[in-house]
């Protein structure tokens, strides 16, 4: 019983550390704390967002996108996801070549 309580408390501490480092903009520490916390709870959408933000701030954009997209898959509605995910480029229809000028004669 005590062991289960200690593990649950440790998990909370890891998640709290992750969040605290993100809030304080300590990106390297946030990256590590979030990664460790996710090791115990890989489907925690809030942790995935925090980790994604830290990764983005450290210019690890592909890893950040993976974390943020996974958080979306898990149902997160955190507004930072939209802020940090790359914007989709709208597809532009192919341009039609201009009609040739009529011959003058």
Structure commentary:
- This protein is an all-alpha fold.
- It has five helices and no strands.
- The radius of gyration is 22 Å and the shape is elongated.
- The N and C termini lie far apart (98 Å).
List the helices and strands and how they pair.
Elements: H1 2-23, H2 27-40, H3 45-57, H4 61-73, H5 79-84
Helix pairs in contact: 1-2, 1-3, 2-3, 3-4
Structural class category: mainly alpha
Number of helices: 5
Helical content band: 55-70%
Gap between N and C termini, in Å? Answer: 98 Å
Largest sheet: none
Average pLDDT over all residues = 85
Radius of gyration: 22 Å
Question: How many strand segments?
Answer: 0
Shape: elongated
Percentage of residues in strands: under 5%
| Element order: H for helix, E for strand | HHHHH
Low-confidence stretches: 1-9
Summary of the model, kept short:
The chain has 105 residues and is mainly α.
Comma- or semicolon-separated keywords:
105 residues, mainly alpha, 65% helix, disordered N terminus
């Amino acid at each position: 019983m005590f062991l289960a309580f200690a593990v649950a408390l440790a998990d909370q501490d890891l998640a709290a550390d992750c969040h605290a480092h993100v809030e304080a903009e300590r990106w390297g520490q946030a990256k590590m704390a979030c990664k460790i916390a996710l090791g115990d709870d890989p489907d925690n959408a809030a942790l995935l967002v925090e980790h994604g933000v830290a990764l983005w701030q450290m210019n690890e954009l592909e890893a950040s996108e993976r974390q943020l997209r996974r958080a979306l898959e898990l149902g997160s509605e955190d507004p930072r996801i939209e802020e940090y995910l790359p914007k989709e480029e709208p597809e532009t229809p192919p341009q039609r070549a201009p009609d040739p000028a009529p011959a003058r004669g």
